[in-house]
Structure formats: structure tokens, C-alpha cells
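Hello, quick one for you while I still have it in my head. My current little project is about how a certain protein chain folds up. You're getting the sequence in one-letter code plus the fold written as C-alpha cells. Would you mind checking whether the C-alpha cells look sensible for this chain? Here's the protein in full, and shout if anything looks odd to you:
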Amino acid sequence: MPSKGSSLSTELWQPTQEQRKAEGPDPIEYPEYYDGISIKRILAYVIDFIICAVVGFIGVIIASIVGLMSFGLLFGPMIALLALIPIIYHTVLIASDKSATIGMRFVGIRVYRLDGGRPEMLQAFIQTAIFFFTAPPTSFLILIVCLFNTRRRCLHDILAGTLTLNDPEKNI
């Protein structure tokens, strides 16, 4: 198993370097990486939503104070900036060394590139942006995509080239 703070060992699902297409671990051969992943993702999202809501509430208070001090001139731009809180939160934390948001860490899951590495900032941004621009307008029905593939990847995972798995340091 990987040491503390390291990436998931790609030797598990990439036995040879000649393999052209990285896909992540095989769910049949390594089911421990996928056990309960859908429920854990939902719980992680709820935790992250609560965190973003609290930060947003604090942001509204700050925006109101700044708005009053600027006679209303900065209130509109400050409120517009608050819409970026969830995107910045998810992007920065998924691209961090832990490859997971606070909610993901709590439930024991991480985001990986298909070759087992940590997602880069651009890849994390693409995943986050696609999620936030597709999930709310479809009433989150777009997330049903994960039920029809063996690796439980949602549309935003597929398009960003990422994979969400159980964290081997916590679960395996």
C-alpha cells in the first residue's frame, strides 16, 4: 500500500507500461476501490455544500458591510464573487496534495487521474465547472450516468479524465 501522503500505486491497475489507455483499477479485480463509492460521493457533497453555505453566509455579511461602506457600489460585484466560492473550493482542494475536498476526506474518497496521479489544477477546474454547469440545471439527474458504468464515473469525471475511488490509506 502507498505510504502516507503518496498517490495510489498505479501498479495495481497498470501492470505494464505498454498499456495505451489508462482506465483506473478494474472494478471486478479490485472491488475495494469502488465499494459504496456512490453513497460516499453523495455524503461528501452534502458536507461540502454545508461548508460552502457557511462560507457564503459569512461572505454575504462581509459583502453587506462593504456594500454599505461603499454606498452600495461594491455590493453587486461582491455578491457576484460569492458565486465562485463552490468552484474555487472544489477546484483548489481536488488539485491539492490530498486530491479531495473536506467532505471527500471525511468519507474516505479521493479523486485521481486515470493513470493514478493527482489531478492538475486545470483538470480539477474542468471537473468542477462541468459539475456545476450540468448538475443544477438538470436537477442533478445528470449524475445518474454513474449508475450505468462499472467504475461509477459521472459525466464530469468522464469529461475531465478523472476517477473517484476509496482512499487506500483509509479504507483498504
User: Anything to note?
Assistant: The chain has one domain: 31-171. The longest strand covers residues 109-113. The mean pLDDT is 83. DSSP finds seven helices and two strands in the chain.
